[in-house]
Each structure stands twice: as C-alpha cells, then as structure tokens.
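Worked example (supplementary).
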Amino acid sequence: MTAWSGFAGLMPLEGYEPPGVESFDLPPLIPGQEWANKYLLQAVVSVVLIMAFWLVMSRKRALVPSKGQFLGESAYMFVRNSIARDTIGHDFKKWVPLLIALFSFVLVNNLWGVFPLTLMPTAAHVGWAYGLAGLVWLIYNGIGIKKFGPIGYLKHATMPPGVPGPMLIIVAPLEFLSNIIVRPATLSLRLFANMFAGHLLVLVFVLGGEYLLLHSEPVFNKVAGVASLIFSLAIFGLEIFVQSLQAYIFTMLTAQYISSATAEEH
Amino acid sequence: MTPLELVGSLGIVGYGLGAIGPGIGVGLIFAAVIEGTARQPEARGAMLSTAFIGFALTEALAIIGIALAFVFGFVGQ
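After joint prediction of all chains, the assembly is encoded as:
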C-alpha cells in the first residue's frame, strides 16, 4: 500500500520549495558587488560573441559563398528584408544596423535560457527588458521629434488623420497614452513576461520532477518524477521557439514604431 | 464561519480571465492575415505590418493584466 499511499492521500510534499520570484535573485559573482551578477556576465559575453560573429561574417566576401558565409548572409538578409525593408519602407537602410544589433542581442540573451552552462534568460531580470525598451522609446520619439519638431510630432502621434473634430477630444489623449506611455511598457513587459514565465515553467517541471524522483517515497511519485523530467525537455523545446519568436517580435515592433513615427502624411 | 477563504494570488486568477479577450483578439488578427495572404500573396508584406500594429495594441491589454496581477493581486496575509 505504501506504493499508492502518496496518490491516495495526495499529501502536500514536505520539504518541497516551489520555484517562485526568489529563484530569479542571483547572487553576485564578485562578493560585495551586488551589480556584478550572472545576468551582467551573460550580457557581456553575448556582446563579445555577437561582435565576433558579425565581424567574421562581414569579412568573407567570396562571390560563391561558403556555408558559413551563406549562414551569415541569410541571417543578415532576414532582418534586412523582412523586418527593415518591408516595415520601414524606402529609407530603411540606415536602420538596418540598429535592427541587426537589437535582434542579435535579444536573441542571444534569450537563448542563454536553454544553453546548458547558464540556463537563465537575461531578460528574466526585468531591468534588462526596461533598458532595451527605454532605448527603443528614446529612438522612435527622438526621430519623430527630429523630423516634425516637438509640437508637430505630438500632433502627428496623437491626432490620426481623418478623425472629425469633436472626436479628437477623446481620441487624442487615448492616442497619447497608447503611443507614448503604453508602448515602452508593453515592449519591455512582453519580453520580460515571456522570459520569466517560460523559465518558471521549466523550473516547475525540473524541480518538481527532481523532488518527486529523489525526495519522496512512493513508487507512483518516482514514476511521476521521471515523467516530469522527460516532459521538461519538451518544455525546453518550447522555450527555444518562444525565445526566438520574442526576439523577432521585439525587433519587428521596433521597426514598426520607427516607421509610424516617421510616416509621411498622405 | 467563512465558507470559502481565498489567500494568495487573486491577481493570477484575474489575469487568467483577462487573457481570454486578447487571446481571441490576436487569433482573429492573424487569422485575417493568413486568409488575406491566401487570397493575394503579394500583399503579404503590407498586411503583416498592419497586423503587427494591431497585435501590439491588443496584447497590451494582456500585458497590463499580468503586470497588475503582480502589483495588486495578493489577498490575505
């Protein structure tokens, strides 16, 4: 009966600490310096890797590309064509470096969440998401102000064309809220919530499976623990997909905001 | 006697309910994009641009939900 006692009673498991927000507080790597934690190390290593990758890619210029050159060119063409050219329009070329940098940085930092040595996406610490979205906010507002002047940009952003006069009293504050206040918040929180929730999901399956397998007695629990650990591999696969998709969405929305800040009135 | 006492995160229940609308909304947006691409493949680029604007606005509601669930959502001690 002991094999099934755990199942029949569904007793709460003593000694199990479910993963929570505190799983994301990482200790500093240099004792005493609270800012020097694993997130910072991951971000710095990601910048070094990205710079090395793109420098090597831009060096090979054979007319008939090798496999490595083809890979790099495909990655570059993906961001340049489907994100920059299709979204921004005719003067997209000056935005390609920014979009390449953003896409590479967000993608590599997201993928640290499934890399075996780190297993923590950098954006799961909300400050990194805030920083990236704050940069994008400064850029698209700045470029709009540079093109239209401050008052002109405000008019452009809050008063869409074709709205009759009295409706503007309702529409303009809503557009201001939506374009200038809510956009950086949603841009950052979308990235953060996806990384945080995804990593928490992985933690639930792995920690729960490990506890069930090694720290509880009934056989049913141990079998459930093995199943949970095996299923966590499927969750890792889902996480790779979500992380890549979130990097793409972040870059696409940046291009979208830049495009709508500089759109010509027809 | 309290028949039912909720302690913990009511905000997550609220977020779960609040994510129904944006989930359906985003699904509708991209369903329209898929159908439009099936009808006219060369319009795909322009359609995707509009779709992403609409996606950002619709998903904003779900993101506000998860953010406020963390801020205001805890009940009990």
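Two points are worth noting when inspecting this output. Residues 35-262 of chain A form one domain. The two ends of chain A are 78 Å apart (CA to CA).
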